[in-house]
Amino acid sequence: MNLLSQIAAGVTVAGLAFAFVLEVFFHRDPRTYSFTLIRPEDVPAVRLWVIFIGLYNLCFAAGIAAGLILLNTGADAAGRALVLFGCGSHILLAVLFPFVERRLWRNALMEGVPPLIAVVAYVLWG
Questions:
Q1: Residue 3 burial by Cβ neighbours in a 10 Å radius (0-12, 13-18, 19+)
Q2: CA angle at residue 110 from 81 to 5, to 5 degrees?
Q3: At what angle do helices 43-71 and 76-100 cross, to 10 degrees?
Q4: How many CB atoms lie within 10 A of CB 11?
Q5: Which ranges in the chain belong to alpha helices (H)?
Q6: Would the pTM of this model clear 0.90, i.e. be above it?
Q7: 19-37 pLDDT, tens digit each
Q8: Torsion of CA 122, 78, 67, 70, to 10 degrees
Q9: 75 φ, ψ (degrees, to nearest 5)
Q10: d(CA 79, CA 70)
């Protein structure tokens, strides 16, 4: 897997880790409402949902990070599989976001562009 693919996958990991922190630890903070589309009065009702979404993001970040580690420690096939699965999943999620909620188009770009770069760079240059 080439350097550009690995860097873009690393950016994906960082973005997912950032989303985890926002969703798990700061979902009550009014500054995050535009990111999560949570209305202040709905915070108690969606608390568990937001925390679980954050945990899912953390799991995907860990999977992609593990893939990057494996790639660079000699387990190329396993590492490539983890990175491509994690990135491919987030490309699909990014495509679906705007269909679920039109206002999530920015989130879709943040979630989808780095893994798309990783996969396209891998397909084009290995």
A1: exposed
A2: 35
A3: 150
A4: 15
A5: 3-25, 33-36, 43-71, 76-100, 105-125
A6: yes
A7: 999 999 998 898 888 888 8
A8: -110
A9: -100, 65
A10: 5
